Amino acid sequence: MAKFLNSALCFLLIIAVALGISQVNAQKRCTEILNPTGCVLYDCKKECFEKHNGNGLCSSAGTIGQYVCTCVYNCSLDDDHSS
Question: Are 72 and 31 in contact (CB under 8 A)?
Answer without folding.
Answer: yes
